[in-house]
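Two entries, shown back to back:
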Amino acid sequence: MTPQYDEDTRKALESLRNSVAKALDRKRRLGQYAVVWKDGKSVYIGPNPPDSKEPPRSKPAQR
């Protein structure tokens, strides 16, 4: 059963879906991974995700 939304809400959801699709497509074309929510937890999709055992960085990497 699909919920019924008013016109403004439907337009906002459509805009958000389009924006997310564009962002994920861009990451895919650049060969980057993305983090998405699936089955109640965050998961990496795409190539070369970070190792889950690697601790998160607290500051940007030095170049």
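entry 2 starts here
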Amino acid sequence: MKDRNSSDLSHHILPNSATMVGVCIMVISIVKSMPPGLANYLIDKALAIDSLLFMVSALLSFSSIRLEQCTERLERWAEMLFLLGLFSMTLITVIFSFEIV
């Protein structure tokens, strides 16, 4: 049986992961409307991978809410992927904002 704090975490990860998928899609569509170049290509691919991280995080979070077995493990993976997605999105932003690539 899940404790209350564990359940609350999944309820926060799910909507925020879904929102971040939308953010990635929006930025990808903006980048696609710009003139082609290496930086735009790299931003596009990096954010596509990032959106997959957020999507898997959302699916694991949803599964953790719906299933009664392995919920803590699913929630832990959802949390780790969500944090990895946030970290990678921040890294992508810094790299391209400061024109490191």
